[in-house]
Sequence to fold (74 residues):
Amino acid sequence: MRISVDIDEATLAEVMALTGESQKSPALAKAIMEFTYRRRAKEFGRLIRESAFDYSADSGDGDPANPIPPLGAK
Fold:
């Protein structure tokens, strides 16, 4: 999607340097993806700290010390 954005040259140059991109559009796209990734990770961490995921200690499906079943388990 194409959009127009006003960004000062110094900030744009810093974004390009930090992302390692030599063109503006890929640099901004990479920066935006990184920003959204970090926000999602921060929210996930908050949910973990608040015990939003309720795994019972004994699910009956294997190791009670590891409540997450192995891949392919049914």
Observations:
- Residues 24-49 form the longest helix (26 residues).
